[in-house]
Amino acid sequence: MADNLPPPEETARLLKSTAISKVRLYGVDAGLIRALAGSNISVAVGVANGDIPSLAADPAAASRWLAANVLPFVPATAISAVAVGNEVLESGDASLAAALLPAMQNLRAAAAGGAAAGVRFSTVNTMGVMAQSDPPSTGAFHPDITPQLQGILSFLSKTGAPFMINPYPWFAYQSDPRPDTLAFCLFQPNAGRVD
Question: Is the pLDDT of residue 153 over 70?
Fold first, then answer.
């Protein structure tokens, strides 16, 4: 969302020079995806929230989306996942949330048996899907979204797709502003958390 981004080839060169092995794109950047071809960097591409209703309603729309946004790049670029929407369950839009799982199912069905058969389909959530997460052994999903999340989790389990979140370390620190929490959130040396 910036107007001063480096060209795709420069971005790919920078990524290749690091230990980064996975990249998530919030959309489909054809130039960057092509520039990452032949690298050992796994790419997750995103489906815009606005595309979810049509992908859920029409399997042919899912096939067209896949043909335009994934198939031209595989296998040269390792597209490992498609993130269907971003923070949909927390968006407050009940109809969009209801369309999420059918969109994921239609995209996966469109990929079955073809060049994109190894691509996993998931969605990205905030930590807001969790009613409690610390310590991990007491983790529980928020009851307001549990019914929708159950279907999604079942789909992810059956297909071997990852459960994806956008972690926001600032919110973790804001809710627990101890110095060791800040170090934990910034991946700095810390005592860790005992569960």
Answer: yes
